Task: inverse folding
């Protein structure tokens, strides 16, 4: 048996790139959830009921928020303010009437629990092929988000974007706004 | 039957040319690395089976092609002798030998090699009696786009798929991590050069300008500092 020839690091020493993408995507989904393909097709992103943050600088290294709308919680903002980034999140992505739900594990762009729309087709084979097409479309939509992130991340305007995210993290969450005075 | 309504997967770039799944070359390569059952002495074996039925290791276009994708299953059979069970059998064997020696009026003494041999014999015997655990990992591949999806996220199983894919086609599977996929998406663009110069972003810089990255693991933010435990004594403050 031949052992695989491995690169030193499949993440290129950039463990943080995926979590930065997901953290940015969380903010972007709150600020402007619409992404547009070149052909004008719109994709909407919404963060669903699972968020996992990690960070090395604060007393708690890992924070998991589940059920309800954790993205709108004060705990999520506090995690960001304490230097953590989002490493995993349950996301809802909508294109027209089609919705997919999935968990993105950001460090390796792993997809778990992807729920595709109910496929059409008369036979199991037809339905499987329809699922593969839907999976292609899902990957295209996710990569649209990644491309949009990269278009900012590698430009000088990234610093401005980060400053906007910092201001956002300091603003009261929807949770806090809704709390009685 | 493979269904994809709910799935987990890791994406890979196929790091070179593999034969078209419409060619005999493809099927020959897969057949050469098909699943073979465990031999009596093996603890693990793995190889390709059809994705719809893990007992079938005869491949043709009908059993492999799903639209534009080729679908194979990596079948992994494992069996392991339970250590506590092995230890118990060894103890019984030693007791039986001791008794036999005492009955024969001789002194019971076992050398290191004899003990090792007893252990190996019993292990081999128990291994034959142990049923294997059976797993199948679907692998979808698109030879034109040079993309593969492994429908499992465990590190061990992904490593095994990568090894077996390399053994089968002589080509590596390269995980499409954020860094690698970004490299691909930026190919030919001036921004590609900037990718390797990136530094970690600190989303937590305080309004006063204290950069948490420059703080490193230094002082904790006020809200993260351990707070003194205040016991409620019931006394008015």
Result:
């Amino acid at each position: 048996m031949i052992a695989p020839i491995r690169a030193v690091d499949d993440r290129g020493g950039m463990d943080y790139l995926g979590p930065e993408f997901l953290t940015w995507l969380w903010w972007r989904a709150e600020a402007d959830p619409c992404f547009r393909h070149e052909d004008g097709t719109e994709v909407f992103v919404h963060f669903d009921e699972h968020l996992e943050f990690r960070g090395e600088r604060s007393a708690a290294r890992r924070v998991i928020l589940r059920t309800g709308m954790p993205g709108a919680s004060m705990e999520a903002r506090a995690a960001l303010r304490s230097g953590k980034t989002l490493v995993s999140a349950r996301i809802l992505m909508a294109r027209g009437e089609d919705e997919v739900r999935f968990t993105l594990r950001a460090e390796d762009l792993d997809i778990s629990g992807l729920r595709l729309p109910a496929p059409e087709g008369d036979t199991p084979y037809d339905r499987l092929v329809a699922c593969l097409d839907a999976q292609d479309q899902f990957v295209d939509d996710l990569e649209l988000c990644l491309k949009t992130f990269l278009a900012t991340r590698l430009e000088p305007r990234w610093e401005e974007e980060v400053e906007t995210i910092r201001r956002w993290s300091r603003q009261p969450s929807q949770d806090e706004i809704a709390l009685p005075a | 039957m493979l269904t994809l309504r709910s799935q987990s997967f890791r994406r890979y770039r196929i790091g070179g040319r593999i034969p078209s799944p419409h060619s005999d070359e493809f099927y020959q390569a897969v057949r050469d690395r098909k699943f073979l059952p465990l031999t009596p002495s093996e603890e693990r074996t793995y190889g390709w089976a059809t994705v719809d039925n893990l007992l079938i290791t005869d491949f043709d276009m009908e059993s492999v092609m799903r639209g534009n994708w080729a679908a194979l299953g990596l079948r992994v059979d494992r069996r392991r002798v339970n250590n506590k069970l092995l230890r118990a059998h060894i103890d019984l064997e030693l007791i039986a030998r001791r008794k036999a020696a005492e009955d024969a009026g001789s002194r019971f003494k076992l050398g290191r090699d004899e003990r090792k041999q007893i252990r190996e014999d019993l292990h081999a015997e128990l291994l034959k009696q142990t049923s294997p655990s059976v797993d199948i990992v679907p692998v979808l591949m698109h030879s034109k786009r040079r993309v593969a999806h492994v429908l499992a996220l465990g590190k061990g199983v992904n490593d095994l798929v990568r090894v077996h894919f390399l053994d089968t086609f002589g080509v590596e599977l390269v995980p499409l991590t954020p860094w690698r996929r970004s490299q691909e998406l930026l190919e030919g663009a001036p921004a590609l050069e900037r990718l390797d110069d990136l530094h970690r972003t600190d989303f937590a810089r305080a309004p006063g300008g204290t950069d948490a990255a420059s703080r490193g693991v230094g002082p904790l933010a006020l809200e993260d500092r351990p707070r003194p435990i205040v016991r409620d004594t019931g006394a008015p403050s």
